[in-house]
Amino acid sequence: MSLQPDQVLDVCGLPCPLPLLKAKQALSRLEVGQLLEVRATDAGSWQDFASYVELSVHEMPARDERDGVYHYWLRKGGERAS
């Protein structure tokens, strides 16, 4: 993958909903436009991250699964317009 993250978050071994909660905390510390790579082993995280991105201002430019590890790249978005 050619995406270069600003931060990598390893949440392997954590059960749902912890991977998403930890990712949300990490995103809150990033600047708008920065990229977070999340590595998780919880299979439920595949749908959790997709649903979260649909409902948030953040983007997920890529995601994949390799050898039982799910990789998500999340780009921090700005604030929603009112």
TrEMBL record:
Residues 9-33 form the UPF0033 domain. One of its GO terms (molecular function) is transferase activity. InterPro entries: TusA-like, TusA-like_sf. Keywords: Transferase. Gene3D superfamilies: TusA-like domain (3.30.110.40). The keyword Transferase applies. PROSITE patterns: UPF0033. PANTHER family: SULFUR CARRIER PROTEIN TUSA, SULFUR CARRIER PROTEIN YEDF-RELATED. Belongs to the sulfur carrier protein TusA family. This is Sulfurtransferase TusA family protein. It comes from Halomonas alimentaria.
